[in-house]
Amino acid sequence: MIKKALKYLVCLLIILAVIVFSLDYWISLKTKPYIYEDYDAIPHNAVGVVLGTSKYIKGGGINAFYKNRINGAIDLYWLEKVDYLLLSGDNAMYSYNEPIMMRSDLLKAGIPNSAIVLDYAGFRTLDSIVRANKVFDANHFTIITQQFHCERALFIAQYQGIDAQCFAVPTPDNIQMIRVREMFARLMTFFDLYILKKEPKFLGPLLPIVAETEPENTSIKSH
After folding, report:
1. I need a labelling partner for 6 at 20 to 30 A (CA). Which of 126, 148, 157, 190 fits?
2. Residue 59: pLDDT over 90
3. Residue 65 · residue 102 · CB < 8 Å
4. Taking the CA of residue 25 as centre, how many other CA atoms within 13 Å lie in the half-sphere pointing to its CB?
């Protein structure tokens, strides 16, 4: 009985591994055409959505994932690839507020406050992407994050019928464990979308970033 049970367990683990790797590959392939690394190549969108993460790593020091997303957002703004930056992240505790931290660093870089919009309810990637569309009325936007995260974010956007693209900022080295975790995050995202039909934790009233009368390609930049 024990040997038989072990055989079933091994078979289940093999099936799970095949599903996880296949889904991971499919999501990467499906979203590849909408990911850019070249500033010159990426088309303009009025709104850039910066996906939040912790500014600091455990033990001290700046989180390279955070730093690269902020630098990418700054560059895209000054290169007139986006007109507004929607900062979406977690503010679960008074002492931890991702959107506020991002805004502070963007303001230090000279980005005008009028070009910055905060989304305090971006608890998960799904929340950030769906809220950008349903709360902030952005039908076309540029996501700003690392490539592996771009793929999952775009997968969510495509499922929701949102016209999004992603600018992939540099990914730090030695992310093997993060990449493994990402595989399972994609599996959970698939379940959230196709099986559980999950919605963001909070939605709320419509708060358009771009006025209906304002053309999407209007630049608001001033140095």
Report:
1. 190
2. no
3. no
4. 6
